[in-house]
Amino acid sequence: MAKRVRVMSMSVEQPLWRALTGYRVLTMLYAVGLFATAYGTFDRPWVAVAYYAVLCGWTLATLPKVANAASCTKRFLAADLTIALVGILLTPLADAHERIVAGGPTLPSIWTAGSVLAFAVKGGWRWAAFASTAVAVANVFERQAPARDTVHNVILVWVASIAIGYVVEVARASERTLARALEIEAATRERERLARDIHDSVLQVLAMVQRRGAVLGGEAAELGRMAGEQEVALRTLVAGGLLPASRVSEDESQGAVVRAVEEPDEEGPLDLRALLVPYATAKVTFSEPGAPVRLAHAAAKELAAAVGAALDNVRKHAGDSARAWILVEDEPDAVIVTVRDDGPGIPAGRLAQAEGEGRLGVAQSIRGRLRDIGGTAELISVPGQGTEVELKVPKDPGHPKAARGKAERG
Protein backbone atom coordinates (compact mmCIF):
# COMPACT_ATOMS: atom_id res chain seq x y z
CA MET A 1 0.00 0.00 0.00
CA ALA A 2 1.39 3.38 -1.00
CA LYS A 3 2.31 5.57 1.93
CA ARG A 4 1.13 9.14 1.77
CA VAL A 5 3.89 11.63 2.55
CA ARG A 6 2.94 15.05 3.79
CA VAL A 7 5.37 17.91 3.18
CA MET A 8 5.04 20.69 5.69
CA SER A 9 5.67 24.29 4.71
CA MET A 10 8.08 26.03 7.02
CA SER A 11 8.83 29.72 7.37
CA VAL A 12 10.59 30.94 10.50
CA GLU A 13 10.42 34.54 9.25
CA GLN A 14 6.64 34.64 8.91
CA PRO A 15 6.17 36.08 12.44
CA LEU A 16 8.34 39.02 11.39
CA TRP A 17 5.96 39.83 8.53
CA ARG A 18 2.98 39.72 10.87
CA ALA A 19 4.76 42.00 13.32
CA LEU A 20 5.65 44.40 10.49
CA THR A 21 2.00 44.55 9.39
CA GLY A 22 0.89 45.55 12.89
CA TYR A 23 3.76 48.02 13.23
CA ARG A 24 2.79 49.87 10.05
CA VAL A 25 -0.83 50.31 11.16
CA LEU A 26 0.07 51.46 14.67
CA THR A 27 2.71 53.93 13.49
CA MET A 28 0.29 55.32 10.90
CA LEU A 29 -2.22 56.04 13.69
CA TYR A 30 0.56 57.49 15.83
CA ALA A 31 1.69 59.89 13.07
CA VAL A 32 -1.90 61.08 12.47
CA GLY A 33 -2.51 61.53 16.20
CA LEU A 34 0.72 63.47 16.59
CA PHE A 35 -0.37 65.84 13.85
CA ALA A 36 -3.84 66.26 15.35
CA THR A 37 -2.42 67.35 18.71
CA ALA A 38 -0.23 70.02 17.07
CA TYR A 39 -2.60 71.06 14.28
CA GLY A 40 -2.62 74.72 15.32
CA THR A 41 1.14 75.10 15.08
CA PHE A 42 1.38 74.11 11.41
CA ASP A 43 1.87 76.91 8.88
CA ARG A 44 0.18 74.94 6.07
CA PRO A 45 -1.88 72.18 7.69
CA TRP A 46 -3.62 71.37 4.42
CA VAL A 47 -0.29 70.03 3.06
CA ALA A 48 -0.07 67.69 6.04
CA VAL A 49 -3.73 66.64 5.70
CA ALA A 50 -3.22 65.76 2.03
CA TYR A 51 -0.10 63.76 2.87
CA TYR A 52 -1.78 61.86 5.70
CA ALA A 53 -4.71 61.00 3.43
CA VAL A 54 -2.25 59.40 1.01
CA LEU A 55 -0.30 57.75 3.85
CA CYS A 56 -3.40 56.18 5.43
CA GLY A 57 -4.77 54.99 2.10
CA TRP A 58 -1.44 53.52 1.08
CA THR A 59 -0.84 51.79 4.42
CA LEU A 60 -4.24 50.13 4.54
CA ALA A 61 -4.30 49.21 0.83
CA THR A 62 -0.86 47.58 0.95
CA LEU A 63 -1.30 45.44 4.06
CA PRO A 64 -1.37 42.28 1.87
CA LYS A 65 1.98 43.37 0.42
CA VAL A 66 3.69 42.93 3.79
CA ALA A 67 2.02 39.61 4.57
CA ASN A 68 4.92 37.50 3.24
CA ALA A 69 8.14 37.67 1.26
CA ALA A 70 6.49 36.75 -2.06
CA SER A 71 3.99 39.63 -1.90
CA CYS A 72 6.59 42.17 -0.86
CA THR A 73 8.05 42.93 -4.29
CA LYS A 74 10.88 45.27 -5.16
CA ARG A 75 8.45 47.63 -6.87
CA PHE A 76 6.37 47.88 -3.71
CA LEU A 77 9.44 48.50 -1.56
CA ALA A 78 10.59 51.30 -3.86
CA ALA A 79 7.15 52.98 -3.79
CA ASP A 80 6.87 52.55 -0.02
CA LEU A 81 10.26 54.13 0.60
CA THR A 82 9.39 56.95 -1.80
CA ILE A 83 6.28 57.84 0.23
CA ALA A 84 8.37 57.91 3.41
CA LEU A 85 11.03 60.15 1.82
CA VAL A 86 8.43 62.51 0.30
CA GLY A 87 6.82 62.89 3.70
CA ILE A 88 10.15 63.84 5.26
CA LEU A 89 10.91 66.38 2.52
CA LEU A 90 7.36 67.88 2.72
CA THR A 91 7.71 68.61 6.43
CA PRO A 92 9.31 72.09 5.96
CA LEU A 93 6.41 73.10 3.69
CA ALA A 94 3.74 72.13 6.22
CA ASP A 95 5.27 72.67 9.65
CA ALA A 96 6.49 75.82 11.32
CA HIS A 97 10.19 76.54 10.97
CA GLU A 98 10.55 76.93 14.74
CA ARG A 99 9.25 73.42 15.36
CA ILE A 100 11.61 71.97 12.79
CA VAL A 101 14.61 73.77 14.31
CA ALA A 102 13.52 72.62 17.77
CA GLY A 103 13.61 69.01 16.63
CA GLY A 104 9.93 68.40 15.87
CA PRO A 105 8.93 65.17 14.17
CA THR A 106 8.65 64.77 10.41
CA LEU A 107 5.25 64.13 8.84
CA PRO A 108 5.62 60.30 8.65
CA SER A 109 7.38 60.24 12.04
CA ILE A 110 8.30 56.67 13.06
CA TRP A 111 6.20 55.20 10.23
CA THR A 112 9.37 55.61 8.15
CA ALA A 113 11.05 52.84 10.16
CA GLY A 114 8.42 50.38 8.94
CA SER A 115 9.45 51.01 5.35
CA VAL A 116 13.10 50.41 6.23
CA LEU A 117 12.25 47.25 8.17
CA ALA A 118 10.39 45.89 5.14
CA PHE A 119 13.66 46.15 3.23
CA ALA A 120 15.44 44.33 6.06
CA VAL A 121 12.98 41.43 6.26
CA LYS A 122 12.81 41.03 2.49
CA GLY A 123 16.45 41.34 1.50
CA GLY A 124 18.63 41.13 4.59
CA TRP A 125 21.06 43.60 6.09
CA ARG A 126 22.40 44.98 2.78
CA TRP A 127 18.94 46.08 1.65
CA ALA A 128 18.34 47.54 5.11
CA ALA A 129 21.57 49.55 4.90
CA PHE A 130 20.50 51.02 1.55
CA ALA A 131 17.03 52.06 2.76
CA SER A 132 18.25 53.49 6.08
CA THR A 133 20.93 55.50 4.26
CA ALA A 134 18.30 57.05 1.99
CA VAL A 135 16.21 57.99 5.05
CA ALA A 136 19.29 59.47 6.74
CA VAL A 137 20.05 61.71 3.74
CA ALA A 138 16.41 62.90 3.60
CA ASN A 139 16.40 63.72 7.33
CA VAL A 140 19.61 65.74 7.11
CA PHE A 141 18.24 67.64 4.10
CA GLU A 142 14.97 68.34 5.95
CA ARG A 143 16.81 69.74 9.01
CA GLN A 144 19.33 71.62 6.86
CA ALA A 145 21.95 70.56 9.42
CA PRO A 146 22.94 67.31 11.17
CA ALA A 147 21.47 68.14 14.58
CA ARG A 148 22.12 65.84 17.53
CA ASP A 149 18.57 64.47 17.68
CA THR A 150 18.59 63.84 13.94
CA VAL A 151 21.88 61.95 14.07
CA HIS A 152 20.64 59.97 17.06
CA ASN A 153 17.44 58.89 15.30
CA VAL A 154 19.24 58.09 12.06
CA ILE A 155 21.80 55.88 13.79
CA LEU A 156 19.07 54.14 15.77
CA VAL A 157 17.14 53.23 12.60
CA TRP A 158 20.33 52.25 10.84
CA VAL A 159 21.56 49.88 13.55
CA ALA A 160 18.13 48.37 14.22
CA SER A 161 17.33 47.68 10.57
CA ILE A 162 20.74 46.20 9.78
CA ALA A 163 20.56 43.99 12.88
CA ILE A 164 17.10 42.73 11.93
CA GLY A 165 18.24 42.11 8.37
CA TYR A 166 21.16 40.03 9.63
CA VAL A 167 18.86 38.04 11.94
CA VAL A 168 16.58 37.32 8.98
CA GLU A 169 19.49 35.96 6.95
CA VAL A 170 20.55 33.72 9.84
CA ALA A 171 16.95 32.53 10.27
CA ARG A 172 16.70 31.60 6.59
CA ALA A 173 19.97 29.66 6.75
CA SER A 174 18.73 27.83 9.85
CA GLU A 175 15.46 27.05 8.08
CA ARG A 176 17.30 25.48 5.16
CA THR A 177 19.44 23.43 7.54
CA LEU A 178 16.39 22.24 9.44
CA ALA A 179 14.60 21.33 6.23
CA ARG A 180 17.55 19.27 5.07
CA ALA A 181 17.82 17.51 8.44
CA LEU A 182 14.13 16.62 8.35
CA GLU A 183 14.47 15.36 4.78
CA ILE A 184 17.44 13.16 5.66
CA GLU A 185 15.62 11.77 8.70
CA ALA A 186 12.51 10.98 6.63
CA ALA A 187 14.59 9.36 3.87
CA THR A 188 16.49 7.27 6.41
CA ARG A 189 13.30 6.00 8.02
CA GLU A 190 11.77 5.14 4.66
CA ARG A 191 14.93 3.34 3.54
CA GLU A 192 15.00 1.32 6.77
CA ARG A 193 11.33 0.39 6.30
CA LEU A 194 11.94 -0.70 2.72
CA ALA A 195 15.04 -2.63 3.75
CA ARG A 196 13.04 -4.58 6.36
CA ASP A 197 10.24 -5.36 3.93
CA ILE A 198 12.59 -6.41 1.13
CA HIS A 199 14.78 -8.45 3.48
CA ASP A 200 11.75 -10.35 4.72
CA SER A 201 10.51 -11.15 1.23
CA VAL A 202 12.44 -10.53 -1.97
CA LEU A 203 16.00 -11.01 -0.69
CA GLN A 204 15.17 -14.28 1.04
CA VAL A 205 13.54 -15.63 -2.12
CA LEU A 206 16.54 -14.65 -4.25
CA ALA A 207 18.94 -16.25 -1.77
CA MET A 208 16.90 -19.46 -1.78
CA VAL A 209 16.87 -19.53 -5.61
CA GLN A 210 20.63 -19.09 -5.62
CA ARG A 211 21.19 -21.97 -3.20
CA ARG A 212 18.75 -24.32 -4.90
CA GLY A 213 20.13 -23.51 -8.32
CA ALA A 214 23.67 -24.39 -7.22
CA VAL A 215 22.42 -27.73 -5.88
CA LEU A 216 20.37 -28.65 -8.97
CA GLY A 217 23.03 -27.65 -11.52
CA GLY A 218 22.51 -27.16 -15.24
CA GLU A 219 20.22 -24.33 -16.30
CA ALA A 220 19.05 -24.01 -12.70
CA ALA A 221 22.63 -23.15 -11.69
CA GLU A 222 22.69 -20.32 -14.22
CA LEU A 223 19.34 -19.08 -12.90
CA GLY A 224 20.73 -19.29 -9.37
CA ARG A 225 23.80 -17.27 -10.37
CA MET A 226 21.61 -14.54 -11.86
CA ALA A 227 19.43 -14.52 -8.74
CA GLY A 228 22.58 -14.08 -6.63
CA GLU A 229 23.67 -11.09 -8.69
CA GLN A 230 20.25 -9.49 -8.34
CA GLU A 231 20.32 -10.12 -4.59
CA VAL A 232 23.62 -8.25 -4.27
CA ALA A 233 22.37 -5.35 -6.38
CA LEU A 234 19.16 -5.09 -4.39
CA ARG A 235 20.98 -5.20 -1.05
CA THR A 236 23.22 -2.38 -2.22
CA LEU A 237 20.24 -0.30 -3.29
CA VAL A 238 18.33 -0.55 -0.02
CA ALA A 239 21.24 -0.53 2.43
CA GLY A 240 23.67 2.05 1.17
CA GLY A 241 21.84 5.33 0.80
CA LEU A 242 24.49 6.10 -1.77
CA LEU A 243 22.59 8.62 -3.88
CA PRO A 244 23.93 12.16 -3.75
CA ALA A 245 22.49 14.31 -1.01
CA SER A 246 19.57 16.45 -2.07
CA ARG A 247 19.54 20.20 -2.02
CA VAL A 248 16.78 21.98 -0.09
CA SER A 249 15.73 25.42 -1.12
CA GLU A 250 12.81 27.68 -0.42
CA ASP A 251 10.17 28.72 -2.89
CA GLU A 252 9.28 32.25 -1.82
CA SER A 253 6.11 32.27 -3.89
CA GLN A 254 4.52 29.56 -1.75
CA GLY A 255 6.73 29.39 1.33
CA ALA A 256 7.17 25.68 0.66
CA VAL A 257 10.19 23.41 0.70
CA VAL A 258 11.52 22.47 -2.73
CA ARG A 259 13.81 19.48 -3.16
CA ALA A 260 16.09 18.75 -6.09
CA VAL A 261 18.85 16.22 -6.67
CA GLU A 262 22.25 17.77 -6.30
CA GLU A 263 24.86 16.81 -8.85
CA PRO A 264 28.21 15.69 -7.40
CA ASP A 265 30.81 18.42 -7.27
CA GLU A 266 33.72 17.45 -9.50
CA GLU A 267 36.14 19.28 -7.24
CA GLY A 268 34.54 18.71 -3.84
CA PRO A 269 34.77 15.68 -1.52
CA LEU A 270 33.28 12.39 -2.71
CA ASP A 271 31.50 9.65 -0.83
CA LEU A 272 33.88 6.69 -1.23
CA ARG A 273 31.00 4.24 -0.86
CA ALA A 274 29.44 5.43 -4.13
CA LEU A 275 32.69 4.66 -5.97
CA LEU A 276 33.15 1.19 -4.49
CA VAL A 277 29.59 -0.14 -4.59
CA PRO A 278 29.76 -1.00 -8.34
CA TYR A 279 32.42 -3.61 -7.48
CA ALA A 280 29.86 -5.63 -5.49
CA THR A 281 28.76 -8.82 -7.28
CA ALA A 282 27.56 -12.26 -6.35
CA LYS A 283 31.17 -13.16 -5.51
CA VAL A 284 32.30 -9.82 -4.09
CA THR A 285 30.74 -8.74 -0.79
CA PHE A 286 30.84 -5.04 0.01
CA SER A 287 30.56 -3.84 3.62
CA GLU A 288 30.48 -0.12 4.42
CA PRO A 289 29.51 2.28 7.22
CA GLY A 290 25.99 3.67 7.37
CA ALA A 291 27.24 7.26 7.05
CA PRO A 292 29.02 8.88 4.08
CA VAL A 293 32.78 8.27 3.88
CA ARG A 294 34.08 11.52 2.43
CA LEU A 295 37.51 11.94 0.89
CA ALA A 296 39.07 14.55 -1.34
CA HIS A 297 38.05 14.08 -4.97
CA ALA A 298 41.46 12.90 -6.24
CA ALA A 299 42.14 10.68 -3.22
CA ALA A 300 38.75 8.96 -3.49
CA LYS A 301 39.24 8.28 -7.21
CA GLU A 302 42.73 6.84 -6.75
CA LEU A 303 41.67 4.70 -3.78
CA ALA A 304 38.74 3.28 -5.74
CA ALA A 305 41.05 2.52 -8.67
CA ALA A 306 43.43 0.70 -6.31
CA VAL A 307 40.55 -1.41 -5.03
CA GLY A 308 39.65 -2.23 -8.64
CA ALA A 309 43.25 -3.30 -9.30
CA ALA A 310 43.22 -5.56 -6.22
CA LEU A 311 40.00 -7.23 -7.44
CA ASP A 312 41.52 -7.68 -10.89
CA ASN A 313 44.38 -9.60 -9.24
CA VAL A 314 41.85 -11.80 -7.43
CA ARG A 315 40.14 -12.68 -10.72
CA LYS A 316 43.43 -13.33 -12.50
CA HIS A 317 45.26 -15.34 -9.85
CA ALA A 318 42.62 -16.79 -7.51
CA GLY A 319 40.34 -18.22 -10.18
CA ASP A 320 36.70 -17.76 -11.10
CA SER A 321 35.45 -19.62 -8.04
CA ALA A 322 37.24 -17.36 -5.53
CA ARG A 323 35.20 -15.00 -3.39
CA ALA A 324 36.31 -11.55 -2.27
CA TRP A 325 35.28 -9.14 0.46
CA ILE A 326 35.61 -5.34 0.55
CA LEU A 327 35.49 -3.68 3.97
CA VAL A 328 35.46 0.12 4.40
CA GLU A 329 36.40 1.59 7.79
CA ASP A 330 35.99 5.30 8.50
CA GLU A 331 38.52 6.18 11.20
CA PRO A 332 38.84 9.67 12.76
CA ASP A 333 42.04 10.49 10.88
CA ALA A 334 42.07 8.01 7.99
CA VAL A 335 39.99 5.78 5.73
CA ILE A 336 40.93 2.11 5.57
CA VAL A 337 39.76 -0.22 2.81
CA THR A 338 40.53 -3.92 3.10
CA VAL A 339 40.22 -6.32 0.13
CA ARG A 340 40.36 -9.98 1.12
CA ASP A 341 39.92 -13.16 -0.92
CA ASP A 342 39.78 -16.90 -0.24
CA GLY A 343 42.12 -17.85 -3.06
CA PRO A 344 45.30 -19.93 -2.86
CA GLY A 345 47.42 -16.98 -1.69
CA ILE A 346 50.71 -15.67 -3.10
CA PRO A 347 53.83 -17.83 -2.81
CA ALA A 348 56.75 -16.27 -0.96
CA GLY A 349 58.94 -14.16 -3.24
CA ARG A 350 56.39 -14.11 -6.04
CA LEU A 351 55.82 -10.32 -5.88
CA ALA A 352 59.54 -9.55 -6.10
CA GLN A 353 59.86 -11.95 -9.01
CA ALA A 354 56.95 -10.29 -10.82
CA GLU A 355 58.51 -6.84 -10.41
CA GLY A 356 61.79 -8.19 -11.74
CA GLU A 357 59.96 -9.52 -14.79
CA GLY A 358 58.35 -6.11 -15.43
CA ARG A 359 54.86 -7.02 -14.19
CA LEU A 360 54.13 -4.11 -11.88
CA GLY A 361 50.43 -4.60 -11.12
CA VAL A 362 50.79 -4.53 -7.33
CA ALA A 363 53.75 -2.14 -7.32
CA GLN A 364 52.16 0.53 -9.51
CA SER A 365 48.40 -0.05 -9.71
CA ILE A 366 48.04 -0.44 -5.95
CA ARG A 367 51.07 0.74 -3.98
CA GLY A 368 51.93 3.47 -6.50
CA ARG A 369 48.42 4.91 -6.42
CA LEU A 370 48.35 4.97 -2.63
CA ARG A 371 51.79 6.54 -2.43
CA ASP A 372 50.70 9.33 -4.78
CA ILE A 373 47.88 10.35 -2.43
CA GLY A 374 49.94 10.01 0.74
CA GLY A 375 48.55 6.60 1.69
CA THR A 376 49.95 3.14 2.30
CA ALA A 377 49.21 -0.32 0.95
CA GLU A 378 50.02 -3.46 2.93
CA LEU A 379 49.69 -6.92 1.44
CA ILE A 380 49.41 -10.03 3.60
CA SER A 381 49.24 -13.43 1.94
CA VAL A 382 49.53 -16.91 3.36
CA PRO A 383 49.67 -19.80 0.88
CA GLY A 384 46.40 -21.69 1.00
CA GLN A 385 44.65 -19.02 3.10
CA GLY A 386 44.03 -16.22 0.63
CA THR A 387 45.35 -12.68 0.32
CA GLU A 388 44.49 -9.50 2.17
CA VAL A 389 45.31 -5.99 0.92
CA GLU A 390 44.92 -3.10 3.38
CA LEU A 391 44.72 0.37 1.82
CA LYS A 392 44.99 3.34 4.19
CA VAL A 393 44.55 7.01 3.19
CA PRO A 394 44.81 9.95 5.65
CA LYS A 395 41.83 12.34 5.63
CA ASP A 396 43.88 15.46 6.31
CA PRO A 397 45.61 16.76 3.13
CA GLY A 398 48.23 18.34 5.42
CA HIS A 399 49.12 14.98 6.96
CA PRO A 400 52.89 14.30 6.71
CA LYS A 401 52.33 11.25 4.53
CA ALA A 402 49.99 13.09 2.21
CA ALA A 403 52.37 16.03 1.96
CA ARG A 404 55.25 13.68 1.22
CA GLY A 405 53.26 11.99 -1.52
CA LYS A 406 52.53 15.35 -3.19
CA ALA A 407 56.20 16.33 -2.96
CA GLU A 408 57.27 13.08 -4.61
CA ARG A 409 54.78 13.61 -7.45
CA GLY A 410 55.99 17.19 -7.92
Describe this structure in words.
This protein is an alpha+beta fold and 410 residues long. It has two domains: 1-239, no CATH class; 265-410, Histidine kinase-like ATPase, C-terminal domain (Heat Shock Protein 90, 2-Layer Sandwich). It has helices at 14-37, 45-61, 74-94, 97-101, 111-123, 125-143, 148-216, 219-240, 272-276, 297-317, 350-356, 361-372, 400-409, and strands at 246-251, 256-261, 270-271, 284-287, 294-295, 324-330, 334-341, 376-381, 387-394. The strands form three sheets. It has a five-stranded mixed sheet. A hairpin with a 5-residue loop joins strand 8 and strand 9 (387-394). It is elongated and about 110 Å long. 27% of the residues are buried.
Largest sheet: 5 strands, mixed
Taking pLDDT < 50 over at least 5 consecutive residues as the criterion, the unreliable ranges are 1-9, 241-265, 356-361
The helix count comes to: 13
Strand order of the biggest β-sheet? 4-6-7-9-8
Count of spatially separate domains: 2
Shape: elongated
The counted number of beta strands is: 9
The span between the termini is: 59 Å
Mean pLDDT: 77
Q: Helix and strand string, N-terminal first?
A: HHHHHHHHEEEHEEHEEHHEEH
Instruction: Provide the β-strand percentage band.
Output: 5-15%
Radius of gyration using CA atoms only: 35 Å
User: Which structural class do you get from the secondary structure elements?
Assistant: alpha+beta
Percent of residues in helices comes to: 55-70%
Biased composition (Basic and acidic residues): 389-410
Domain DUF5931: 6-179
Domain Signal transduction histidine kinase subgroup 3 dimerisation and phosphoacceptor: 190-230
Organism: Streptomyces avermitilis
